[in-house]
Design brief:
The complex is a heterodimer.
Chain A lengths: L27 E7 L2 E7 L3 H21 L1 H9 L5 H15 L2 H9 L2 H5 L1 H12 L8 H17 L17 H13 L9 H5 L3 H21 L7 H13 L1 H21 L5
Helix pairs in contact in A: 1-6, 1-7, 7-8, 7-12, 8-10, 8-12, 10-11, 11-12
Chain B lengths: L14 H8 L5 H13 L2 H7 L6 H15 L8 H18 L1 H30 L3 H13 L8 H25 L13 H13 L7 H27 L6 H17 L6 H14 L5 E4 L3 E4 L1 H15 L11 H13 L6 H17 L5 H16 L7 H18 L5 H21 L3 H23 L5 H14 L13 H15 L9 H8 L7 H12 L4 H4 L4 H7 L4
Antiparallel strand pairs in B: 1-2
Chain lengths: 268, 562
């Protein structure tokens, strides 16, 4: 990659780390609990909530993947009906997890799905022979970016709810996340201190770009939970034939993000 | 500018759609696609139900759709504020056009009914298992407030449904908040507070409002159960005064019986009442509006007599004055009531267990009552995961073995208690419960002592004692923790003596202070308990650990053992 190829202006992912920030949108209905009584209060969404939601979505996707839900959905919608096999598989998982009846009952009540998230996902992974089950940073960053972009284009509705269209996460959010995560300056001693000490900015930027491309390649080798089929093919082609397109796409996403983050009050 | 993902419209349902749906974040079009798929493939609903909140958007959408259908442009969330503003509009509307008011009335009452119907359906279907759906139901109901157009009947229905949703939430809260955390401040136990709110919503319901009275009886039954649980924790975990909680349990059960005298909860309420009274409810205190805390006996006893009167087959039968005379005839009368449902079986098993313990000194009568409870348990199938059932069944087996002590050959008693031990061992492998552990500790400890006696009489090999000693060490944290096992302190001393002898270290014993105290209280006439104790101490005649204690010679002498 030449120095000319490395000149991209992409917003680092530092804004992902902001928590205590009310987003300048219409108020959203949020459940709350006071003196044992559940109520609903209308208030503004915070970055912390958006970030936690992104993490929960990633977790859910991984749990579903480990339980075989994406494959089931695909086959069901092609009318090849593997539902009986799937239910047998779920029963097998439950039996093998040895949760005990009460534990399964709790899981079914939903509340404990939250409570047992960590051990549940690892156990599922072990059963499926998956050595690295955790949702990766790239996914969380991409989903968080997607949620925020959606919030910018579809404000909260009059009823105080946020309705997201679903489907799959756009490619530009994934590649933006791959770049933005390596543009965050890590704490502690720098791993690649040689380039920075030499003042060679070109080399330093080549480092994050190399890391971003590697992250994209690695992500493609994982179960592609966020990307649709078309985006998966596009990203593979970019990496193969025109890596600079990855950064150009990320930059376009970044350009859209900058004014939005200011409008929502996340950045000044 | 719109920002949508490439595959969101008219495309297959993706895992991301399900994840967003589960979080209640999917938009209306997406929800439609997901729900369409769930309807086509109901098998999927099972796996989706594992995800919290899957149904929340369905419910909220349904509620909103109903409301907006009736009141175009009116969003559910804005209703309270709009209602207030509407009063002003109403005044003008009355002057201008009565027809408009009539239409509005129909719309508001209709929307109220629509919300009630949607919530009722949700509660009847899966509401009790899905916390977020339940929460949504409650929120929808809480938003419905009395207004000029809402009839008393509609409000009664709203209050009943709200109370039902609260009780369903109590069921869930009980799994997450233990009585132990509130043992010092039982009135603040959250499930109890929720039940209190449900009762206050339904207090004063008319006698002909059968549905509301059933819910009221449910709420009171749950209060009685919760107080019983708190009392048990106070008694065994913290050694606190517990009679007040039993008094409150009994009072709630009596209120429940009044609310729905022939309801499906009748036997459950009678079980709770009888148990509370047996455990000392009448020695507790109750809070009254007029006099503050007062003794429970003058309040509860007349009601118990009245109950006995209503249960007595012969209306001319004289009802005993005090609880000690009333307890057995009342228990016997209750135990004769018909049993139909699983809940009835469970309640009757509890009644038989309590009555069996009450009759301990009366030999064969106690045994037949406990056997009645065991027979009922054996008629039940599919209750493997029901903790109360498993606890009660095991207690019946264990109490029957205790009751047989001294009255049958040792081998028969060992055989009976072995059933209880095996029962609790099997259940503790499947379920995690402190109570189960305590009960397993109780039957294992008693069996160990009896095996020791049998070993000394040459009826059992020493290896059986070793086996049970090892098991008990595991259960009781190395013979240090016997909380809730309802063992006498002298029994624990003797168990420690067995351990010390087996290890060959007298210092591992725990002394015989409590055994000596017990021995000094020799009854005037030889009772069954005395004979059992005598048999036990006789087995320890040659125990090096016991012999090292200065009190032991006196204990043997008092029991007439050479």
């Amino acid at each position: 990659m030449t120095a000319a190829d490395t000149n991209y202006d992409i917003l680092p992912g530092d804004w992902w780390l902001i928590r205590q920030c009310n987003l300048n949108t219409q108020s959203v209905l949020r459940p709350r609990r006071r003196r044992g009584v559940a109520t609903v209060k209308s208030r503004q969404l915070t970055m912390a909530e958006l970030s936690e939601t992104a993490a929960k979505l990633c977790f859910r996707l991984h749990s579903m993947y480990l339980q075989g839900v994406p494959g089931l959905l695909k086959e069901l919608q092609q009318d090849s009906l593997p539902a009986a096999q799937y239910m047998a598989r779920i029963r097998e998982i439950n039996r093998r997890l040895d949760l005990g009846g009460k534990r399964i009952e709790k899981l079914k009540q939903g509340r404990d799905v939250q409570r047992f998230t960590v051990d549940q996902i690892y156990k599922l992974a072990v059963l499926q022979g998956v050595p690295e089950p955790a949702p990766c940073v790239l996914e969380w960053g991409a989903v968080l970016t997607w949620l925020l972009l959606h919030l910018g284009s579809h404000p909260v509705d009059a009823g105080g709810t946020v309705g997201i269209p679903g489907g799959t996460v756009p490619l530009e959010c994934v590649v933006y996340a791959a770049c933005a995560m390596f543009l965050i300056e890590p704490i502690g001693p720098k791993k690649d201190s040689g380039a920075a000490q030499d003042g060679d900015a070109g080399l330093a930027s080549a480092t994050w770009q190399r890391q971003a491309l590697e992250a994209c390649e690695q992500y493609l080798s994982r179960p592609r939970l966020l990307l649709g089929q078309a985006d998966f093919v596009s990203l593979s082609a970019f990496l193969e034939d025109d890596p600079a397109e990855v950064f150009r796409t990320a930059q376009r996403c970044s350009e859209r993000l900058r004014p939005l983050l200011i409008r929502l009050g996340v950045r000044r | 500018m719109s920002y949508e993902s490439a595959e969101s419209k008219g495309s297959p349902v993706t895992a991301m759609d399900l994840a967003l749906y589960a979080e209640g974040l999917l938009d209306a079009a997406g929800c439609e696609r997901v729900e369409g798929l769930l309807q086509r493939y109901p098998q999927l609903q099972g796996c989706c139900a594992d995800w919290s909140g899957v149904e929340q958007s369905e419910l909220s959408e349904a509620v909103r759709a109903q409301l907006t259908e009736r009141l175009p442009g009116l969003e559910a969330a804005e209703r309270p504020a709009l209602q207030r503003r509407s009063w002003v509009s109403l005044a003008a509307a009355v002057l201008l056009a009565t027809a408009v008011v009539a239409a509005w009335r129909n719309a508001e009452a209709g929307a109220f009914d629509a919300t009630l119907s949607v919530t009722e359906r949700a509660l009847q279907s899966a509401g009790a298992q899905l916390p977020l759906e339940l929460q949504r139901s409650r929120q929808s109901l809480e938003r419905l407030q009395k207004s000029f157009w809402i009839s008393d009947q509609q409000m009664r229905r709203r209050n009943r449904l709200l109370a039902e949703s609260m009780l369903a939430q109590v069921g869930m809260e009980r799994k997450h908040v233990t009585p132990l955390e509130f043992v010092d401040r039982p009135d603040q136990y959250p499930p109890l507070e929720l039940c209190g709110q449900a009762v206050s919503l339904l207090n004063g319901v008319a006698a002909d409002d059968v549905l509301s009275r059933k819910v009221l009886a449910d709420a009171l039954c749950t209060i009685s159960e919760l107080r019983d649980g708190l009392a048990a924790v106070q008694r065994f975990q913290r050694d606190l005064p517990f009679a007040d909680q039993y008094a409150l349990s009994a009072a709630a059960a009596l209120d429940g019986l009044r609310a729905a005298p022939d309801g499906r909860q009748r036997l459950m309420l009678l079980n709770l009442l009888y148990r509370a009274a047996h455990k000392g409810a009448l020695t507790g205190r109750l809070q009254t509006a007029e006099s503050g805390l007062v003794s429970a006996e003058p309040i509860l006893l007349p009601q118990l007599r009245e109950l006995m009167q209503s249960l007595a087959q012969d209306s001319g039968e004289v009802v005993a004055e005090g609880w000690s005379q009333l307890a057995v005839p009342l228990g016997v009368a209750i135990s004769r009531l018909p049993v139909t449902s699983f809940q009835d079986h469970l309640a009757m098993m509890g009644i038989c267990n309590t009555l069996g313990m009450r009759l301990r000194a009366k030999g064969s009568l106690a045994r037949s009552v406990l056997e009645q409870g065991i027979r009922l348990a054996e008629q039940v199938s599919g209750a493997e995961q029901d903790l109360t059932f498993q606890l009660t069944y095991g207690r019946l087996l264990g109490n029957l073995a205790d009751d047989m002590a001294g009255a049958v050959p040792i081998s028969d008693e060992l055989l009976q208690r072995e059933k209880a031990v095996q029962h609790f061992r099997g259940v503790t492998r499947r379920m995690v419960s402190q109570e189960l552990q305590s009960e397993l500790c109780w039957v294992t400890a008693r069996q160990l002592l009896l095996l020791y006696v049998a070993e000394k009489q040459g009826l059992q090999p020493a290896s059986r004692v070793d086996e049970y000693l090892g098991a008990l060490k595991q259960i009781s944290n190395g013979l240090t923790s016997f909380e809730g096992a309802q063992l006498s302190l002298f029994e624990i001393e003797l168990i420690r003596a067995i351990y010390a002898d087996r290890e060959g270290r007298v210092s591992l014993g725990q002394g015989l202070v409590h055994s000596a105290q017990l021995a000094s209280r020799k009854p005037d006439d030889a009772t069954s308990d005395w004979e059992i104790r005598r048999r036990l101490f006789a087995a320890f005649r040659d125990s090096a650990c016991c012999r090292s204690q200065p009190e032991f010679a006196d204990i043997l002498k008092t029991h007439g053992i050479e």
